[in-house]
Write a structure and sequence with these properties.
By secondary structure, this protein is of the alpha+beta class. The protein is 39% helix and 9% strand.
Length: 371
Amino acid sequence: MTLFSKRFIKVPYSNNAWLDLKEALRLKALEEGFDVVGFAPPQLPPHASHLDHWLAEKAHGGMAWMDRHAERRKDPRLLMEGLGVMVVLGVSYAPGFDAMRHRDHPERPWIASYALHNDYHEVIKKRLKRLARWLESELGYRPDGRIFVDTAPVMEKPIGTMAGLGWQGKNTMLVSRSYGNWLFLSEFFLALPIPADTPFEKDHCGSCDRCQVACPTGALDRAYHLDASRCLSYITIEHDGPIPLDLRQAMGNRIFGCDDCLGVCPWNRFASPHTDDHFMPREVLVNPDYEKLLALDEEGFRAMFRRSPIKRTGRLRMRRNIAVALGNWPSVKAKILLQKLMGDASELVRSHAQWGLMQRGKDMEKGDSHP
């Protein structure tokens, strides 16, 4: 017999019964591969009004969807009628290597840690669906609920703090005392009167400003405030036009995302490398190669990045990003690859390759070129 028999369908649960269900749900989520689970009350997240100021400053760059759904993003109760509790679930992807290992190696393109393995959206959504089926079995009926894996206007980091998973750090990321910056977040909204967990984790950033200092473009010029229009994760992944000239040198060798403000956080030292088979890095991405990436045609690109978050950025933007990275690598090989890119079918790629060749020309004048 399951914990909650079908005979309870029409009988109101006692407070103790809802607490029992809550802990059973938490245990089942951990069994399904989630590392941490918290329950948040159905209310406005902390500092929800800051979203209006952030949007007014145009700090969201070209992400128009942030503005379109601002009201629903601020108030999770607008996403689901009768919302009773927000279950927030985290999966660790703490790397077993230094996330900053490629910072001083321009000959090696840099891909953000979260993109070195299978797309977390697909993996986590399957786990949430299994959790939902289990809950339906336990209750004997299907409760009203919605699952989210970065698929709706949910302020998941502030809601994560409400659920006790951590605090929102000065880099605006959710920081955990146990998992550092390395948590994939998802949510399970339920129309059930499950009591929330003990509220908020205290902010433990203190006087530390390593993330702000590490940001190569000044996107974190204020603590707890991110100017996405200057963030290299946004620029290399979401932005589909020319990369602003004043950000190109700061890009360095980053071709997809940026780990700087995450990788330097001192709380990462408490995060043990994850052991989840679904998030084991692909060798071809851990140590990528410019020449091999540029050799990919459209079909090859789709095949290589199947089930990878990199697929969404597309081959065109990837080649644009590589052109900038090569422009920041003082070597003869970079110049050769850039000259090849000057024959690309895309004017966007050609213009960035031209910029890269100009950079190489400057280095040659300084006598600062390497094989």
